[in-house]
Design a protein that fits this description.
single chain, 144 residues, alpha+beta, 4-stranded antiparallel sheet, 3 helices, 10 strands, elongated, signal
Length: 144
C-alpha cells in the first residue's frame, strides 16, 4: 500500500495508519505486512526435483475453502503451504504447519506436447487437501 501525503493537513494521521495496515481493517494489506519467508526456502528453480512433482488444483482460495493437491512422489515427503504476496519484498510466507506424508504417490504419466512444451497432469488424483481458515487470510490445515 502506498499513500502519498504531499501537503495534506491530515498527513500525520494518514502516515501513522499506513505504518500499521492491521489497524485499518484491511485483511490483505495486514497479511502482506507480515514477515515473509526467504525465497531460498520456497522458490523452485526450473521444474524442480523429478522425485517429487505436484500442484494445487486452484491458484486462489478464499477463507474457509478447501484446496486439493495433486502430488507424484517416489518416496515419503513433506508439504509446506505458502501464500504469495509482498511480505516485505520476500514474495511469500509459510502459512501452515508442515505435513508429513509417508506413502509415496504414484500417478499416471502427464499428457505432453513437446512442440509447445505443454504438460497436462490434470488426470492425476488428489493426494492431499487443505482447508483454509475461515476467519483469516492465512493458513490451511491438512486432511488426507
Amino acid at each position: 500500500m502506498v499513500i502519498l501525503a504531499g501537503l495534506n493537513p491530515f498527513a500525520s494521521s494518514v502516515a501513522s495508519a499506513a505504518t500499521d495496515p492491521c489497524s485499518v481493517g484491511t485483511p490483505v494489506a495486514c497479511e502482506n505486512s507480515k514477515p515473509g519467508t526467504s525465497p531460498s526456502e520456497w522458490d523452485i528453480q526450473g521444474s524442480g526435483d523429478d522425485a517429487i512433482q505436484g500442484f494445487a488444483t486452484t491458484t486462489s482460495v478464499q477463507p474457509g475453502q478447501t484446496v486439493q493437491f495433486k502430488i507424484k512422489a517416489s518416496a515419503s515427503y513433506t508439504v509446506d503451504v505458502y501464500r504469495l504476496g509482498y511480505y516485505q519484498g520476500l514474495g511469500a510466507r509459510r502459512q501452515a504447519p508442515t505435513w508429513t506424508v509417508s506413502n509415496p504417490a504414484a500417478q499416471p504419466a502427464c499428457v505432453s506436447d513437446t512442440s509447445t512444451q505443454n504438460y497436462d497432469c490434470g488426470t492425476w488424483g488428489s493426494r492431499r487437501s487443505g482447508r483454509c481458515r475461515a476467519t483469516r487470510y492465512q493458513g490451511c490445515t491438512s486432511s488426507s
